[in-house]
Amino acid sequence: MLKTIKPKNARTKRILKKREPKVEENVKTAIFIRGSTTSQVVNDALSDLCRLRRSNSINFTKKNNIHPFDDDTSLDFYCAKNDSSLFVIGSHSKKRPHNLVFGRMFDGQVLDMIEVGIEKAITMNEIKTPKCSMGMKPLFIFNGELFETSQVHKTFKNMMLDFYRGQTMESINVSGLEYVISITATGSITSSDNTVPSTFDGKIFFRVYTIQMTKSGQKVPRVELEDMGPNYEFKFRRTRFAKEEVYKIATKIPKTLKPKKVKNVGVNEIGDKVGRIHVGRQDLGKLQTRKMKGLKRMSEDNDRTEDWSRKKRKA
């Protein structure tokens, strides 16, 4: 762990203040680290995944002797030094070829990690199509029931949303939606603890598409998806989930960010706002009816109809 630093000037004090816990967090920084041995597939995957979030990412081009599942002390050091809470570690060995480890940090320690192997890969440079602009937020599509039932798939989904969430926006411009990340899960998990068994043959298909908006003759444009890359086929390997107590603390919402409860106002199942109004008992005895034009006109009309019916009877 890094030792506590006492600020010696105003610049250092500002930097340390930015790293302090906040009610509204800054955009998370991700570091992409190469292990002691890597392959060209792993190097290309690290650079392409880093390009998808260029504005808040650091790509380590040198090799580092780091093994997160065996010893995470050096990983804690790198994350603390670069003020990053997200990391991806690439490695390659005979036992685990073309390996990637996605992970998150909390309170200076590793929160959870998921290890995947790259079965097939197509880089961005291999696909000769236009790329998205820098700093744009992606749309996400998660296909497969496993993202709702399996613990490892739920964690992986949450991790991907954390990696590419970006800055929180209050409003969205349609022209700013430039690319889509589609993640599809196949296979099934039959283990009781929802972890990945050794016989699991399912895969994760990671695809990235650009959004092409063309004229449709209406106000809403016609939307088409064009392959941008990178494209991967992942296979789950090792996992390390966060403890339940630690995960509750990490996902706890501060009281200042919780919406204030309004009395007698709620939301129904559809999402519509529903309110209840209490009205006192009305006293009809004090209701003024003499000088009401509506009632007076009705009485005149009734007199005319009665006169007309009498004349008709006499005739």
Automatic annotation (TrEMBL):
Q: What is its main location?
A: nucleus
Give me the stretches of Basic and acidic residues compositional bias: 297-309
List the keywords (alphabetical): Nucleus
In the record, biological process GO terms are: maturation of LSU-rRNA from tricistronic rRNA transcript (SSU-rRNA, 5.8S rRNA, LSU-rRNA); ribosomal large subunit assembly
Entry's localization field = Nucleus, Nucleolus
Q: GO CC terms on record?
A: nucleolus
| A molecular function GO annotation | rRNA binding
Q: Where is this region: Disordered?
A: 290-315
Q: Classify the source by domain of life.
A: Eukaryota
- Domain called Brix: residue spans: 28-245
The record's listing under Pfam families reads: Brix
By sequence similarity, the record places it as follows: Belongs to the RPF2 family.
- Can you say what this protein is called? Ribosome production factor 2 homolog
Q: What is the organism field in this record? A: Cetraspora pellucida
